[in-house]
Amino acid sequence: MPISLTRRTVLGAMLAPAIIRPTLGHAAEPIRLGAILSATGPGAGVGLPQRNGVLLAVKAINEKGGIAGRPIELLVEDDGSNPDAAVTKANNLIFSQKVKAIIGPTLTASTLSVGGVADPEKIAVMPFTGLGLEMEKQRRSVFHMLPTQDLNARALLEFVTKNMKTRKVAVLHDSAYGNIVMTKLKEVNATYNVDFVAAEKWEVGATDVTTQAAKIKATAPDVVLVIGNSATPFRNLRQIRMNAPLMSALGTASYEYVRAMGDAADNIIFAEFLVAEDPLPYQKDFVETFHKEYDTFPKTMEASAWDAVHAVAAGIAKAGPDATPAAISDAIRGPYAGAMAKFDFSAPDLTGLSLSSYVYSKLEKGKFTRVPFTAGQ
Amino acid sequence: MSMMLLAQACATGITNGLIYALVGLGMAVIFKGSRLINAMHGELAVVGAATAVYCVEIAMWPTWLAVTMGMLIAMVLSTLVDIGLVRRLFNRNAREESFLLLTVGLGFTFSAAVLYVFGREEHLLPAFGDEIYEVAGAIIREQTIWIVGIAAFILIGLKLFYKYTDFGLAMMAASIDPDGAATTGINVRLMRTATFALGGLMAAVAGLLVTPMIGVSYQMGPILTLKGFAAAVLGGLTNPLGALVGGITIGLLESLSIVYISSGLKDAVALSVLIVIMILVPDGILGRSGRKGG
User: Fold this and answer.
1) Exposure of B280 by Cβ count < 10 A (0-12 exposed, 13-18 middle, 19+ buried)?
2) Domain architecture of chain B: domains with CATH
């Protein structure tokens, strides 16, 4: 029942901001963390799954006795997908609520604005974005939970050239996120020498991209990279009998998009991080816990959120529950083996994800199956 | 440029144009009967389609019953907007901009309500038929044929309704000259309510027809309203045939822009051409007769 599930999550989102207090039984003083997520607005499509991952992680940690015997108290804020709202929420969390670290934000613009406030205070921020602007490299307390677009582009071309062994590639991308990835695809192509036989764009919110799909079909590519946050291009490509494999990035690797694809959800490959139907050994515990709690399978966004909270918890455990935010940041700045992937927050991109971190999946009649391929080898 | 690509672009342009036209038709009906621009029309289409999706996916109703319910809900909602809000504004002699603001605000409200009840995802309705036809290399879905047929049926029906039925003539009279109509015994308020009911029904039909092709989501209302409004204005706002001509013109302009110029410049090219057309024929493609009531 997808609709009723969503109604619950939207209702939950509308109740934010919320304080998630530890359950009774914890006598010790709680450790206060903040979370800034996009539970409403255009970013909610990823913000709500992240919220589920964050809440579950806090619950799991508290059920296991908290951090050094002290439970986590989580203050959840919704930035409405607005960077101005995000910075207001961050100021409140840092200076009024005195949180030890901030989980999120969801979106790149909010990450930039929150990082500008938090980094001078050396408060750890765990955004669900990849490193973007050059200036972000200087913000050593902002630890990114998702790969850079450069790495996403490489992950796609790795599979195309090494697994599919083809170089005749077409790209259908949107005017926002897809546009950035397209730029990166061209930049990294010096390494892969792919022939982009077509590159067509659709505007965000477009209800039909059949003509762009027809232009792509006319070039007879061996694979089509579909980059953007919409199920429409997948449907349109299949409706005009474009039978070549389609490949996409992790943004569309979700059950929500698969449902919206309808009959088109077949022979589509994703470069992502978690195939919950067939998890890697280090992902099994998380997948089981998540499935038990929500009766549905998690994807990359939920896993990254789970990892963000656990990475902070590990940092606090290492630095000590009464450590300063700066000391906690220092403790986080290092390797961390999560459910999504192995991170190294001391890496120049403050993420440490590599090509080998990616997991590839293929949609076969609406079901995700893991493809045995490791990039970067 | 291959013939196949040109044929596909034309087929897609006409299909999208018919979608804009169906939305524009409803806006033209409301304008024809009330002289109001209904900025929530796209949201009414979404409400109708989303209701049908809910009935099919959750209530497990047969599609025909779900579609009927979708039309009924949109029609009732539009009627209630007239009775509860538009009528009050009329009683207070509100100006045109007040009505526009009202429908813009209601559009946002309906959109938020759909988000709350149905969630963020896109939902598809079962298509009327699953056949796929190949014409000059272009792929055409059976649903497109249905859209063409139903659009033609609605167009002819509206023409006959407004020209030959007393009720249709009374609706037009009440809109063009409310005081004169009232002196001849026409219930002007009832006619405007009937106009809103008919507009709501038209919106639902548009939403229900396109949902098997493009999927309904809470955020598609404004784009439907915008494209439908452009179609209606381009053709001549009070002439239903104008909405059809305008819609197909816009759809073809968009589609051919992608093929011959650039997909990134699709909207810029199409809207630029629209501006030129409106400068050349400010009363719409079908001319002054359309402005006078078709």
Assistant:
1) exposed
2) 3-291 (1.10.3470)
